[in-house]
Amino acid sequence: SAVAALFSGQFRSVLRCKGCGYTNHSFEAFSFLPIPIPEHSYRWVTCMVVSASRPPAQHITRVCARVPKQGNINDLLEAAGGMLSMEAQDLVAADVGHGYVARLWHAEKPLSALSDDAQPWIFHTPLQQVKPMELNMPPSSSPSSRRSNSKEKMSPPEDMTARPVIIQLVHRRLRTVKRYFYNPYKSELFSSPVALQLPNRCPGWRLYATAWMAVRHLVPDLTEPEEWPFLLSTVKRDGTACAYCSWRQGCLGCSVPLNEEEIFLTSEESIAVDWDASILQQQYKEKFAGHIHDHESVTLANLERKTSISLEQCLSSLVKDDDLTAFCRECTKQAGEFTESPHVKSLRFWACPPLLVLQLKRFHSRSGAAYKLFNEVTFGSSLDLRKFLCDGTKDCHRTKAFVDWHRPLRERSVSDELRQFVGFPSLSREMTTYKLYGVVYHMGGMGSGHYTASVLHDTQWYCFNDDRVYTISEQDVCNANAYLLFYARDDLFSEKIDLRHLFPEEGRQTPANIEQIKRSAWADMHRLTSSKTSMSVAGERYCCVS
Questions:
Q1: What is the structure's pLDDT at 139?
Q2: What single string gives the DSSP state of each residue in 214-255?
Q3: CA distances from 233 to 146, 246, 348, 455, 535 (A)
Q4: What number of other Cβ atoms are within 10 A of residue 69's Cβ?
Q5: Residues 309-354: pLDDT tens digits?
Q6: What is the DSSP letter of 56?
Q7: Close Cβ partners of 91 (under 8 Å, ≥ 6 residues apart)
Q8: Higher-confidence position of 527 and 192
Q9: Cα separations in angstroms, 157 against 196, 199, 200, 201, 232
Q10: C-alpha to C-alpha distance for 123 and 100, rounded to whole angstroms
Q11: Residue 148's Cα: distance from chain center in Å?
């Protein structure tokens, strides 16, 4: 077909037995080239580490951990903890969004479950020893806030043994709303959540004291408060309502009792820190809450990610020799039984097509994990495949295999002469240089993204982005988002030959007159619509077109 003649090239594959030296040659056709991008056995994961012991300016630290691709969350915890001098057993990874912890990740969870752009949070949760604080209970954050007493609901069972659990603290405040039915106040989350490790049976004062140690960096000027600047409430994971009461009661959260009596905490329970409105207005430091300190590993990871690789290096990895085990006919004859021996497979270009399409293999799926490679592959406006071409004759033999090529397959001749097909007449072993004329880009990750394209017209490059078309420079064509590369052979690009000359002369017909076809089609349609007759079916008269 015309498409095959334009885009199809040929490989020559050589399989050589290491034992007896027997060599097998075969030719393989390709319509596009999937180019592998060299990748490492590790990956960089950017995560936010929330510390319980570092200074307020480094309370949240962004780190880039280098972990094995086939590793698990425990490898991530060890890498992040090693950079910040933290014990891995005191760290817990979580998925955080919209101010609360969506879920905690077990240490055995494979890293393949994390997407390329995922930024997990790691909480430093050592079991801290705190002392009772003689502070008064704060007033309610809002006169219309509705709360219940959780004393009975949080009472621990008598036969419950003490064990450490992880709970999360969410920062919550009340704001007034213009339109409401019963309550003019609505709770909303702010700042980043905090994870704590506490015994599942502990007195209420210990929960308050531990929470104060974890959030006091938000109000650094409040050194000696006379009363608690917040009230703790049991809430759902997203902090919208009470975790125990029915929604019919309109409870925003049952208050945690502040006394010596033990309360019962469940694993991954959510506790809301309801700040006093006056404290938030006067003492809350939003800069401390939103500040993220960048570890030096972030710079190192960005430098490695920006390290580019050339297209020639990727092509070298495509045609490099591979060691494999395969059946050998000569070894089988010598041994007298079926024998598989080590072989070396080499792949080289045999013939170059007029149009060359290269696909950079950025998308991978291995062991149930799907990911994308963001390596920048540099490529120029020209490409030469001469050094990737195998030795052999300089000519691509032309046969009569293209007789009646314009006819359907069932009408073509199937003589023995035609079965001796060697290659397309459009293939070339002499013309190996190409010029770039188009690039397709993909921005995004494995699950979502956006495609754009750049096309060379005359001497100007144009970028096509949805319904927008604009000019770009040649330097902007090569970037890290390149996915498909389109090259035209020099003889075709320079218009030394016409596309029509790439196809055989046999069976070629005179080009059709498009304007005449258009007029004929319009005349036929006009004749059909203008000539109407009527017919009678079962006594009824219908109008039909003859």
A1: 54
A2: HHGGGSTT--S-SB-SEEEEEE-TTSSSBSSS-GGGT-S-EE
A3: 11, 15, 69, 60, 84
A4: 17
A5: 999 999 998 888 888 888 888 888 888 888 888 999 989 999 899 9
A6: G
A7: 49, 77, 80, 81, 122, 123, 124, 125
A8: 192
A9: 22, 14, 11, 9, 21
A10: 13
A11: 45
CA distances from 149 to 254, 260, 381 (A): 5, 16, 73
- Contact predicate 51/63, CB 8 Å: no
* pLDDT band of 383, cuts 50, 70, 90: very high
Half-sphere exposure of 490 (CA within 13 A, CB side): 12
Which tokens is 100 given?
């609360």
What pLDDT score was predicted for residue 137?
62
In degrees, to the nearest 5, what angle opens at C-alpha 195 toward C-alphas 189 and 199? 130
Exposed, middle or buried: residue 362 (CB in 10 Å: 0-12, 13-18, 19+)? buried
Q: How many CB atoms lie within 10 A of CB 238?
A: 15
- Lowest mean pLDDT, pick from 33-47, 157-171, 480-494: 157-171
CA distance 249 to 206: 29
Task: Count Cβ atoms below 10 Å from residue 47 Cβ, excluding itself.
Answer: 21
Indicate the helix (H) or strand (E) that contains 102.
strand 100-105
Cβ atoms of 325 and 341 closer than 8 Å: yes
Query: 433-444 and 382-384 as β-strands: parallel, antiparallel, unpaired?
Result: antiparallel
Q: Where are the alpha helices (DSSP H) in 49-191?
A: 73-84
Which residue has 């059709």 as its token pair?
512
Phi and psi angles of residue 191, each rounded to the nearest 5 degrees, phi first? 60, -170
Contacts of 409 (CB under 8 A, 6+ apart): none
Alpha-carbon distance of 9 to 31, in angstroms, equals 6
* 11, amino acid identity: F
Strand partners, 324: 343
Please compute Rg for the chain using Cα positions.
Answer: 36
Q: Are 37 and 358 in contact (CB under 8 A)?
A: no
Phi, psi of 18 (to 5 degrees): -75, -25
Closest to 356 measured CA to CA, from 315, 328, 395: 315
pLDDT at 96: 94
Beta-strand relationship, 293-294 and 60-68: parallel
b/e per residue 18-34 (b: at least 16 CB within 10 A): eebebeeeeeeeeebbe
Q: What is the 3-state secondary structure (H, E, C) of 269-333?
A: CEEEEEECHHHHHHCCCHHHHHCCEECHHHHHHHHHHCCCEEHHHHHHHHCCCEEEEEECHHHHH
